[in-house]
Every structure is written in C-alpha cells, then in structure tokens.
Backbone:
C-alpha cells in the first residue's frame, strides 16, 4: 500500500478487494458445480480462493485499479491472476488431501476464475465508454477523423467521456491505402488519404468537419487534404497533442492547422552525437542572439550543455527576452548577456578577449530587403564589415570555429542585402582557406538557407496581421516563389553542418553548406492556404492584392551560383558546394577600402566597389526573371 493514501483511495481499495475476493470465492463454487453438480463445494476452498487472489492482487496493484480506465494490459494481468488462483488452489487441495471433483477441475477453475476477475471491469469500461456516434445528438456537427487507429481511439475515448459529446463521429480516413474499407477503433474506414476527396463527395449526408488526429500528417499530404476540404466546403481542425487526449483531460480544444505544418517536410534525423561533441563543454558566443535564428541557436546550444554562453545583440529588448527564457528553461547553463553592435570593433574585440569563445555562431545581420535597399551603407557596415569584425575578434581570442549564417539571397544577388551577405561569405571563405592551409587559426563554416517561417518580418507574420485586420493580403507578384524552412529545422541543420565542416577529414577542401530546402513555394498559394486555414474563402471573404515587385526583390531565389557545383554529404538534408575563393590578403585590402568609403558616406563609390567584388550582383527585370523561370 502506498504511504499517505487518501480516504478515496482507501475506499477504492476496499471495494476492489471485496469484489475480487468475492469473484474468486464465487469462481471456486461455480467451477465445483460445473465439475460435480451433485456435491457442494467446501466453504474453506472459497475462503482460500479469496485469500489467494488478495495475496496475488495486492503487490500487483489490482486493489488500486480504476475500472473506468482499465487497460488491455490490466485485463491480461487479471486473467493471469485467475490462472494463478487455480494453480495454487489445486496444489493446496492435492497437498492437503482434498479430492478433485473431476480430472478437468483445474482447467474449469482457471477459466471461471479468469472470467469472473476480468468480466466486471471490462463490462464497466464498455458501459462508460459508449461509442460517441451513438451518444452525440443528431443536431451536432458530423465529423470524420483522419489518422491512425491508436490516435483515433484516444480521441474517441476522450470524446465519449464528455457529458455532452460535441460531435457525431461518422467514420475514419486512414493514412495508408491498405486500411481502406476496413474498420478501426469502431469506425468504418471510408478511404485512404489519397482517395479522401472522392470518398467525401459520395457521403450522404456530407460531414461538416475533418478532425486530424495524426500528428505525423504534415507537408504535401496535409496540403492535399486541405485542398479537398476547401473544394467541398469542409472545416479542418486537428487535436493539439496526444497528451491532451489523456484520461483526465476530457475532449480537447481542437486547433486550426498551423501554417508550419503545411510546409513542413519529414523530419531529417540529426547526428546528435556529432553536434554534442562540438558544443558540450565549449564556450559559445552567439551574435544576434535575440533574433529569430539567434534565439533558436541559443535554445539548441543550451540543450547540448555548453560550458558557458555569451549572448550578444544590439537590441536590449530582444536580448532581455532570450536571456529570460534561458533563465527559465536552462538555468544550469552559465551565461552572459552583452549589448553590443558587431560594427563596434573595440567593443567586440574586448568581449571576445574577456570571454575567450571556442565556438562563434554569427547570426547578426540586417535582413529586410526593402529597408536594406534604402540604407545600403548600413547593410555593408553590418553584414560585410561586421562579419569581418566578429571573425577577426574571434581569431585573436583563440576561437577554433565560427559559423556564418548566410542566405539564399546571396546567390546571384539582386539586392543590397544579398550582395552584402555574399561579401560576408567571401571573407568567411578566405579566412577558412587560410586556416586550412596553415593548420592554425580560425576555421569558418558558411551555412546558406532560405526564408524562416514565423521569423521577424516574414511574409507569414505579415499575412497573419493582415488576416486579423480583415485583409487584403498583399503580394508583390503572382509568380513570386520562396524557399521556406522552420527555425528549429534550419538551426538543427546549421549546427550539424558546423560539426561536419569542422572536420577536415570529411570536407578537406571546405565549402558552403546549403540546407536542402525542398521545392520553393509560390507565395500566392501560401496566401490562399492561410485564408482557408482561417475558415475563410480567398477572394470572397479576403481579397488578395498584387503590389508589384519592390526594389531588390527577385521572383525566385537560388541556392547555388552557377560556378558552385553542389554535392551531397553523408548527412541527409545537407549539401555542400566548393566555393569561389579569393586570397585573404586581397579580401582584407578590399574590405579596408570598403570601410573607408562607408566612413566617408561615399555611397556611389561603395556600391561601385560592391559591384566589382560581387560581379554577379545584378538587378534583373521581372520579365527576364519570368522568362528564366519558364
């Protein structure tokens, strides 16, 4: 018995002991009558059966069972207890000189005891968890579940426990075609996911709602299901998590589909051991730690037990937010928070000398294309010259590795933002080549990827704000396409790229690591899907307006320059390209010239130098881009 048992638990235990003991005693009498109807069962055997079942049941926890939540495993254990009662009682009878009423008495006793110990609990649970399709009144919304049998069963159990079940569950759509036409969790499987729209069209009456219970249903499969639901005018919701369907929870609040689920690809397995070898016990500096990528970097790094973290950002509020979060989620990790601008060479050098980082994760940058286009010198000072400041300070402080977070906009850039990030790549690659050739100095790994869902200033956040205001949703051009990735996925692959890039035996020539972003998504399709997820109709309830391509924007982005030949790595989701290299001395001289021009605010000369350093920096016309895409 547990210590400090509540009165309610004591009453439950007493009731269970009484029922189990009575069932065992009745089982002996019933088995005796079945084996030898002409003679009565000795009362001592009935008492002995009760004692045996208590002897088995108390250490096994049978006395603490909640009949309402009895599981298949509990029923099997009770049935085995019935077999144990029969075996022990038979051995007692033989040892004490009792005669057996028939040769088959032990088998009869085992079957009767197992039945009487399990049947009351099973019948009670079946009575309490009647099928919701019968419990819900006809006026309630008709719903079809989408998922596996286990997840559907959890939802049905929670739904059945509700005092007034809110839905009439009419069937199940399975994820796999091999289950179509069968029954699962008490429901007819009307179709597989691939045939869902045709099957839903045939239903009479048609359901009002699709409830997704499958947590694994994301990406293209989810997009197809949403398209089918939109064509039929059905609402699609999903259960928030399996834990919300637990016995004590009741019916969970269904949630709209998250846009991240629509775009998410299958989870790429990460080499956590390799990442831990890079970070565990290391002193890690994260620049731009308050931004979307920087904050996610700090979260994942903190989970890998670094010796200490230095969080650096120029925004006091952003720095306070991530510092507070780590104080709550990783209080055991020593950390410092420093307000600093990466363009401030004395400040960054002093911080690096004092902290002595082993690893630098450089995420600080100006990233909003139209704003950067209007402030080109600030972009050059931050994205290019700021990267040099951080790399040089890290090298002087003895850091062994730096990771530059770059962007797909650095490939054949059409914007100041992309061109300035390409300059940062050039410096990083020149530094890395020099370190590889000498065997000493700071190694630099460059990681390039596309748009991050939900990041500050992202199109998803813009659309959410416009939806909340009732529209319209604004898009620059119908053909606009972008690569998308979640921050968690991007950062995980960045850290894995860092661990691989740091190993000269794996990537002896170095390179630019590029995350496999899948296929680019048309922004117009994204806007329509977000309107549908809000339960509204595109163009009818929410308008979509085209505003024209802004300065520096391209219709589509690329992950590799024509001179960069990508090749796969040993890790899924990660590609590497041999970079176009320049001598570190030449790059440093060019950066010195650029720094002088930005100091004198000579914008035309600075942009002319940028054009020479990044000769592919062009601003193609929308018509030329459209022709190239076709």
Residues:
């Amino acid at each position: 018995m547990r210590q400090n048992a509540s009165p309610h638990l004591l009453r439950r235990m007493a009731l269970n002991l009484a029922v189990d003991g009575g069932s065992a005693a009745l089982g002996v009498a019933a088995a005796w009558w079945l084996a030898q109807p002409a003679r009565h069962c000795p009362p001592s055997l009935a008492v002995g059966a009760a004692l045996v079942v208590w002897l088995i049941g108390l250490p096994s926890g049978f006395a603490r069972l909640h009949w309402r939540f009895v599981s298949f495993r509990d029923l099997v254990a009770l049935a085995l207890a019935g077999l144990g009662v029969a075996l022990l009682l038979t051995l007692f009878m033989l040892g004490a000189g009792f005669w057996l009423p028939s040769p088959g008495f032990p088998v009869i006793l085992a079957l009767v005891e197992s039945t009487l110990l399990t049947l009351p609990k099973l019948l009670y649970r079946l009575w309490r968890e009647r099928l919701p399709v019968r419990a819900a009144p006809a006026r309630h919304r008709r719903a079809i579940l989408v998922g596996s049998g286990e997840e559907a069963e959890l939802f049905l159990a929670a739904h059945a426990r509700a005092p007034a079940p809110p839905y009439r569950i009419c069937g199940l759509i399975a994820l796999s075609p091999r289950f179509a036409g069968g029954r699962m969790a008490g429901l007819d499987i009307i179709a597989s996911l691939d045939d869902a729209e045709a099957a839903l069209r045939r239903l009479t009456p048609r359901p009002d709602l699709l409830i997704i219970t499958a947590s694994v249903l994301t990406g293209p499969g989810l997009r197809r299901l949403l398209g089918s639901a939109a064509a039929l005018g059905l609402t699609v919701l999903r259960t928030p998590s399996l834990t919300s369907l637990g016995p004590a929870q009741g019916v969970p609040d269904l949630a709209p589909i998250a846009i991240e689920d629509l775009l998410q690809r299958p989870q790429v397995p990460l080499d956590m051991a390799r990442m831990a070898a890079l970070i565990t016990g290391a002193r890690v500096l994260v620049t731009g730690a308050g931004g979307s990528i920087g904050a996610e970097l700090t979260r994942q790094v903190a989970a890998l037990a670094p010796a200490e973290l230095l969080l650096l950002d120029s925004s006091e509020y952003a720095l306070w937010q991530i510092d507070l979060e780590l104080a709550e989620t990783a209080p055991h990790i020593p950390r410092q928070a420093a307000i600093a601008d990466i363009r401030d060479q004395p400040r960054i050098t002093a911080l690096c000398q004092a902290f002595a980082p082993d690893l630098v994760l450089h995420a600080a940058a100006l990233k909003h294309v139209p704003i950067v286009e209007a402030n080109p010198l600030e972009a050059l000072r931050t994205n290019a010259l700021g990267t040099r400041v951080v790399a040089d300070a890290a090298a002087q402080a003895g850091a062994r590795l730096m990771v530059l977070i770059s962007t797909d906009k650095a490939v054949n850039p059409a914007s100041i933002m992309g061109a300035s990030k390409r300059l940062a790549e050039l410096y990083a690659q020149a530094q890395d080549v020099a370190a590889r050739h000498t065997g000493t100095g700071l190694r630099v790994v460059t990681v390039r990827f596309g748009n991050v869902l939900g990041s500050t200033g992202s199109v998803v956040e813009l659309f959410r704000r416009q939806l909340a205001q009732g529209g319209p949703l604004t898009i620059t051009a119908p053909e606009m396409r972008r690569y998308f990735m979640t921050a968690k996925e991007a950062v995980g692959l960045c850290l894995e790229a860092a661990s691989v890039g740091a190993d000269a035996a794996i990537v002896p020539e170095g390179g630019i690591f590029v995350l496999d972003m899948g296929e680019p998504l048309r922004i117009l399709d994204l806007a329509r899907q977000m309107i549908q997820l809000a339960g509204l109709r595109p163009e009818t309830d929410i308008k979509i307006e085209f505003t024209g391509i802004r300065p520096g924007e391209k219709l589509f982005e690329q992950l590799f320059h024509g001179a960069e030949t990508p090749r796969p790595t040993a890790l899924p989701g990660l590609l590497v390209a041999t970079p176009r290299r320049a001598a570190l001395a030449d790059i440093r001289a060019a950066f010195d010239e650029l720094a002088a021009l930005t100091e004198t605010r000579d914008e035309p000369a600075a942009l002319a130098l940028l054009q020479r350093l990044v000769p592919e920096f062009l601003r193609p016309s929308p018509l030329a881009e459209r022709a190239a895409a076709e």
